[in-house]
Amino acid sequence: MNWLDLRLAQSAVVVYFAVAVLLGLEAMLRRVRLKIAWLAVLVAGAVLHAAALVARSAVSGEVPFTDLFEYTLFMSFAIVLAYLLFFRKRLPTAGALAVVVVALLLLGSASFLFYSDPTGAMMPALKSHWLYIHVSLAALGETFFTVGFVSSLLYLAKRRTADSRSLEALDRLTYKAVSMGFPLFTAGAMVAGAVWAKQAWGAYWSWDPKEVLSLVVWLVYAIYLHARLVRGLRGVTVALISIIGFILTIFTIFGTLIFGGLHSYG
User: Fold this and answer.
1) Does 136 lie in the same domain as 256?
2) Are residues 128 and 110 part of one domain?
3) DSSP character for 31?
4) Less packed terminus of the chain by CB within 10 Å, N or C?
């Protein structure tokens, strides 16, 4: 097996690993040139990553949203792109390192553990535009949940040493990320997913393991928003809710490997 998409994805893994090393060096040495270097290398990795998505689509003839490899390939790219476009100036070096590590782990697992033949026949249930809406919006929602997870981790790590202004900025960043991710996840995982399920399997809800886990994730982030907006909670409590939500998100993505079900192809 020597598909171009796989070679490009694995090359991006190597580049992201180099970025993580450079970020670690910058955290220790605090050199401006290192920041310029890792940003340039990160952009190069994102270009390779995007090329892997294009190559996958070219070989399969479909939008690359149909299995676990393609989902993690897309989501890890979305994480890097979201960081570069929206959060690069808002996260400190430690936050950038955490974002890159998450993307690296997702892409690495996709490339070395879950690669699938792009020329295989597609299941009839996957031939729907509702699938593309469902998967793309869900993955984008989870991308922003990733940023919220990172800023929550930083909040907990720095709560005894950082000044109140820095902590408030991290708390606001978590809220912004979750508030961006929640409507996307709702529209993709819950609404479009239900419509696609009706089209593919004849029912909006089937108590499939991935459906149940997605509902749990949705409830956790709904609790986060309720706690912050209605109850006015800040700080450690909502940071912990955000972290729990992300852990459950990752479990939901890979849960089909354990539970199977209607989503076992992806």
Assistant:
1) yes
2) no
3) -
4) N
Q: Distance between CA atoms of 239 and 243, rounded to whole angstroms?
A: 6
Q: How many residues are recorded in the chain?
A: 266
In the chain, what's the furthest Cα-to-Cα distance?
A: 58
Distance CA 27, CA 117 (A): 40
With 0-12 CB in 10 A as exposed, 13-18 as middle and 19+ as buried, what is 38? buried
Q: Which amino acid is at 23?
A: L
pLDDT (tens place) for every residue of the chain, 266 residues total = 558 999 999 999 999 999 999 999 998 888 888 989 999 999 999 999 999 999 999 988 888 888 899 999 999 999 999 999 999 999 999 999 999 999 999 999 989 998 988 876 566 666 778 889 999 999 999 999 999 999 999 999 999 888 889 999 999 999 999 999 999 999 999 999 999 888 877 888 888 888 899 999 999 999 999 999 998 899 999 999 999 999 999 999 998 777 655 555 55
Claim to verify: residue 182 and residue 159 sit in the same structural domain? yes
Domain count, the chain: 2
- What is the CB-side half-sphere exposure of residue 146 using CA atoms within 13 A? 30
The domain containing residue 74 runs over which residues?
1-119
Q: Where is the domain boundary, 119, 134, 166?
A: 119
Is residue 73 within 8 Å of residue 80, measured between CB atoms? no
Q: Which of 71, 97, 119 is the last residue of a domain?
A: 119
Considering the domain architecture, whether residues 101 and 133 belong to the same structural domain is answered as no
